[in-house]
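Figure 3 (text version): structure tokens given as input.
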């Protein structure tokens, strides 16, 4: 028995402005045309549901993945946190088997390359860096089981 999916609207409301802020210039410049009219699944290992991200007429679309996405980027929570903070190399995470691509590899590789170039989150402010470094050593972020 699978869990029912909660509404995706709260996630979309939180994620869409962040995507617009960090990737808006790239959308306008055409650097994300590979996502136009398409969706890619983003799945965290062990999470009950995956998100689907895509662009429709230059606007971000966030939904629950339904299996129809041509590609999927799968990884543990630690790998996605490293990418979101811009602190790791997407290719390195792939070769360390912390990220995996499924389906249409070219589409997943485009997204992986983008995430390797542009961090989703701004840099951690200096006063918080020590606390964030301690968090990174916690088991829930360090294992590949998440």
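Below: residues designed for each position.
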């Amino acid at each position: 028995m699978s869990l029912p999916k909660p509404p995706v609207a709260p996630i979309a409301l939180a994620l869409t402005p962040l995507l617009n802020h960090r990737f808006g210039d790239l959308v306008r410049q055409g650097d994300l045309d590979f996502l136009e009219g398409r969706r890619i699944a983003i799945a965290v290992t062990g999470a009950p549901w995956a998100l689907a991200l895509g662009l429709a007429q230059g606007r971000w679309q966030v939904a629950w993945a339904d299996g129809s996405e041509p590609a999927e980027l799968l990884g543990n929570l630690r790998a996605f946190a490293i990418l979101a903070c811009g602190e790791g190399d997407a290719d390195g995470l792939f070769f360390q088997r912390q990220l995996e691509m499924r389906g249409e590899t070219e589409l997943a590789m485009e997204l992986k390359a983008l995430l390797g170039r542009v961090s989703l989150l701004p840099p951690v402010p200096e006063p918080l860096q020590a606390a964030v470094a301690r968090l990174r050593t916690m088991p829930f972020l360090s294992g590949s089981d998440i």
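DSSP finds six helices and five strands in the chain.
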